[in-house]
Design goal:
The complex is a heterotrimer of chains A (285), B (420) and C (171). Chain B is mainly alpha-helical and 420 residues long. Chain B contains 16 helices and no strands. Residues 410-415 of chain B have low confidence and may be disordered. Chain C has a domain at 25-45 and 61-150. Residues 11-27 of chain C have low confidence and may be disordered. Classes of the chains: A alpha+beta (285), B mainly alpha (420), C mainly alpha (171). Chains A and B meet through helix 1, helix 4 and strand 7 of A and helix 7 of B.
Chain lengths: 285, 420, 171
């Protein structure tokens, strides 16, 4: 009873707030004038405080001019330890139950090469790397030509100027068309109310990134937008014990990401689909 | 003579009161039918409210198979809605008298089907409280880039066309007047490309996704139309026979047989396109074969859908045989068996046989075997029951109007006012 | 994809001579690194070795440093091929040039040239810091034990839960 009433009031309040804010002018909340966005964020922070009993800071930092992010992953180095998966879960406030992982690591056989029809995401040996296997972690490729953004009926997902494909969690209606459209299985849905232990909540969030999401919306990797727009590496890059993950501004001629693209044998997944990912895989050796 | 405003209101309230009386009057079979539908609707409402409370996790859909039973039913019902056109094309374009009597029932079926389609979409989205995000000016419709935005527009437009034509014809008949040709004929002619349009757009929803090779095939739109035209009218044929049995409604055998014949040709096209798809997949033998193989033969140890696949093939072939041969077509036993067979066959092939193999294995090769949960079955049954209920109640009013038994004026027309 | 790369290389050609990687010849720019990962109390080595006679005979050590098992081209090399015989507080290159421990990358770079070049570009090994600002370099020795560089296998973190029809029901 209590939860149904709460659910009703929250839904009604959310819907009313949404209607008021978008009734006239730009439709997607992120496009509203800065002062209205600030008000919306203040309300959001207040709501989070009531829900999670913590002060959660929601940033609305925009893209940095002259920056185009790109990512490179060295599959000759990755040992499949999955530390990136769990660093991402902690940093980005992913639901623990039901379990959501933005990064999935696939164990593949060396004699079959990169072939998803013979890949296993559920490998669980005592130690990694296993003989004869290599590992390919997959998350959102932040495509230049994203198949997911063009199918969204409400325009709740779009590519930002710095290349990150983002989702407005308060605008998404949960139709999951984008999930059908994504060739990389990068998008995940909140099938039930997400649960995050309060002690593990990351309070440093971004409006389009790792702020706590409601049930019934889609979410995915955002290149740790709360970190990358602050100049920092994404959590997965920092935690990788073998340094297989590289990230930076591809327009900066001195960046390591530029060096990789120009000097290493890079490949992208499902190149024939013409999605032009910003996520490159390479072999350093 | 145009009635004054007061007369119009009086006539309309008379129509409403009369309709309510008609709906409340029926024999035991009628009330049993309504009670049955009502029970299913009630069960569906309960199941859906639980789904809203706990989230779509109550369904069997997961990230790997993110669309399932609801969207499968939606796709099938768009086909049923489009199939009303099968009756319209011969009626108005070729001026075929026997079919013109029954076109109105095709439109009522289209209205019920579109209602069910919209309901299936509503129960499938994660945030039904946000559906207004689709409606400008409050929301934002990503037209023309998103095919789903196109679908929202054409489905609602098709609904409006059918609704306005049907209600116009019936209300004019209620007044003892003929429908306005200059309104009805253009609208009905528009409904033909619209019917093709709704199902083409729905096919494009799947067709445009390069991520799903099973759907990314050029024949999808023609195949959708073929399977719609061979299955949608089946319900109508059964309903018309029921009406003929229980009311004074008259319909020539020739009309029923003609519709069945057209369905046979559509089924041929459907089977041919399936065969073409199967040839391409099995002969080229690329990795994309995996999805077709999962549907017909299973992959690894996963065989859940295989019995459904072959049942659909058998049912489709059986109904084709029954409809193409004039002997079995004209025998009402075999005709009705054929109707049930084609409805079931296309339901399986377009529901489970389209959505699930398209998503299994998923984009990264994982196989999650989806089949609906009890919640999904209850909600779907509730929506079907609601659609049938709407159709039943509309027929309860429309049939007496078309027979001249339910009229606004005292004198009944000498013949059914629908036929010209 | 090819167009994107072409554009990228085009930009590079036009804009500069290519990515400015710190160049590798001897005596070139020094890379600022985190402090070398010495074992507790082992440095400075001269606290023991300043008075000791120098024995350049290739042998298995028995008196001290017995915990170090050399598994790094041990058929051809031994301790004094990297550690300087006359001053144990430094390492030395093949030319004889002495190199302090916080520049040990120059020693490794003699044989592992391409890794050294990649490391200077920030592509080999872990990086901490900011993509648009100060970056932290680690020494080779921070990840690779110079005496036994082969990585030990790690226990992987738990596999994801496969999708299941039952989601935990919460009241």
């Amino acid at each position: 009873m209590e939860s149904t009433r709460r659910l009703f009031t929250q839904t009604a309040a959310g819907a009313a707030a949404g209607m008021v804010l978008t009734a006239c002018g730009p439709k997607r909340l992120y496009e509203v004038p800065k002062d209205r966005l600030k008000t919306a964020i203040a309300d959001l922070e207040q709501r989070y405080k009531e829900q999670h009993h913590k002060d959660i800071r929601v940033s609305d930092a925009g893209p940095i001019p002259g920056v185009q992010f790109a990512y490179a992953l060295d599959i000759s180095r990755c040992i499949g330890c999955r530390r990136c998966v769990y660093a991402c879960v902690a940093e980005n406030n992913q639901s623990r139950d039901p379990q959501i992982h933005w990064i999935r690591v696939f164990a593949m056989e060396k004699d079959k090469g990169v072939d998803f029809s013979h890949a296993d995401a559920y490998y669980n040996p005592a130690e990694v790397p296993e003989d004869g296997h290599f590992y390919v972690p997959v998350s959102c490729q932040q495509c230049e030509n994203p198949p997911c953004t063009k199918v969204c009926p409400t325009g709740a997902t779009w590519a930002e100027k710095d290349g990150i494909v983002v989702i407005d969690y308060d605008w998404c209606i949960g139709c999951r068309y984008c999930m059908a459209a994504c060739p990389y299985g990068a998008r995940h849905f909140n099938w039930s109310e997400p649960t995050i232990p309060e002690a593990e909540l990351n309070t440093n969030t971004h409006y389009l990134g790792n702020r706590p999401r409601p049930k019934g919306v889609v979410e995915k990797c955002t290149f740790c937008i709360q970190r990358s727009r602050d100049g920092r590496y994404p959590a997965c890059v920092e935690v990788c014990p073998v340094g297989a993950r590289k990230f930076g501004n591809v327009l900066d001629p001195d960046s390591e990401i530029r060096y990789i693209i120009e000097h290493k044998r890079v490949l992208v997944l499902k190149e024939e689909l013409n999605t032009v990912p910003r996520f490159f895989y390479f072999y350093a050796t | 003579m145009q009635p004054s405003a007061v007369t119009s209101i009086r006539l309309f309230s008379g129509f409403t009161r009369g309709s309510v009386k008609l709906i409340l009057r029926g024999n035991r079979a009628y009330w049993t039918w309504l009670a049955f539908l009502g029970a299913l609707v009630f069960s569906g409402v309960l199941a859906y409210s639980e789904q809203v409370r706990q989230g779509l996790g109550l369904t069997a859909m997961r990230d790997q198979v993110s669309w399932g039973f609801y969207i499968g039913n939606f796709t099938f019902l768009v086909g049923v809605a489009a199939a009303a056109v099968v009756l319209v094309i011969p009626a108005y374009i070729y001026n075929w008298k026997p079919i013109r009597e029954i076109v109105i029932y095709g439109e009522l079926l289209a209205i019920s089907a579109i209602t069910m389609c919209l309901l299936f979409v509503m129960v499938d989205i994660g945030r039904p409280d946000r559906f207004w995000h689709l409606i400008p000016p409050f929301g934002y419709l990503n037209f023309p880039r998103s095919v789903l935005a196109w679908d929202v527009l054409v489905l609602n437009l098709y609904f409006l066309i059918n609704f306005s034509v049907a209600t116009h014809i019936l209300y004019r008949a209620f007044h003892g007047k003929h429908y306005l040709k200059r309104f009805v004929v253009p609208m009905v002619l528009l409904s033909v490309p619209m019917a093709v349009g709704i199902h083409t757009v729905t096919a494009f929803l799947y067709n445009g996704l390069a991520a799903r090779p099973y759907w990314n095939s050029s024949i999808l739109a023609p195949q959708f139309l073929a399977s719609a035209f061979c299955s949608g009218p089946a319900i109508l044929l059964i309903v018309l026979q029921v009406l003929r049995r229980f009311t004074r409604f008259e319909i020539q055998d020739a009309a029923i047989w003609k519709v069945a014949e057209l369905m046979a040709y559509a089924m041929f096209l459907n089977l041919f396109l399936h065969g073409a798809e199967a040839f391409k997949e099995f002969y080229s033998n690329t990795q994309h074969l995996l999805f077709t193989r999962y549907w017909y033969f299973g992959v690894g140890g996963h065989h859940t859908l295989v019995p459904y696949a072959w049942s659909a093939v058998a049912l489709n072939l059986a109904s084709f045989a029954l409809f193409i041969s004039p002997v079995t077509r004209r025998n009402f036993w075999t005709l009705n068996i054929g109707c049930l067979a084609t409805y079931a066959g296309v339901y399986i092939e377009k529901g489970m046989g389209l959505i699930i193999p398209g998503l299994t294995p998923d984009t990264l090769g994982e196989i999650y075997e989806y089949y609906p949960t009890l919640t999904e079955l209850r909600v779907a049954a509730g929506i079907f029951a609601l659609g049938f209920l709407v159709f039943t109640l509309m027929l309860k009013v429309a049939v007496p109007i078309s027979l001249g038994e339910f009229m606004g004026r005292k004198e009944a027309a000498p013949e059914p006012a629908l036929v010209r | 994809m090819r167009r994107f790369l072409l554009l990228l290389s085009g930009v590079a050609l036009v804009a500069a001579d290519g990515p400015k990687v710190p160049s590798a010849p001897a005596g070139a720019e020094r890379v600022e690194v985190a402090p070398p990962p010495f074992s507790e109390g082992i440095f400075p080595c001269t606290s023991c070795h300043s008075g000791m006679p120098v024995d350049r005979t290739r042998r298995e050590l028995t008196a001290m440093h017995t915990d170090i098992v050399l598994k790094h081209d041990e058929t051809h090399r031994w301790c004094l091929d990297c550690h300087d015989a006359t001053n144990r507080d430094v390492l030395h290159l093949a030319s004889g040039e002495q190199v302090p421990f916080d520049e040990s990358y120059r020693v490794c770079g003699q044989c592992h040239g391409e890794k050294y070049r990649d490391w200077r570009a920030g592509v080999h090994g872990r990086r901490t810091g900011n993509w648009n600002g100060a970056k932290g370099y680690l020494l080779c020795a921070h990840c690779h034990n110079p005496h036994q560089p082969h990585f030990k296998a790690l226990a992987p973190k738990p596999a994801p839960r496969p999708p299941s029809r039952d989601l935990a029901r919460r009241p």
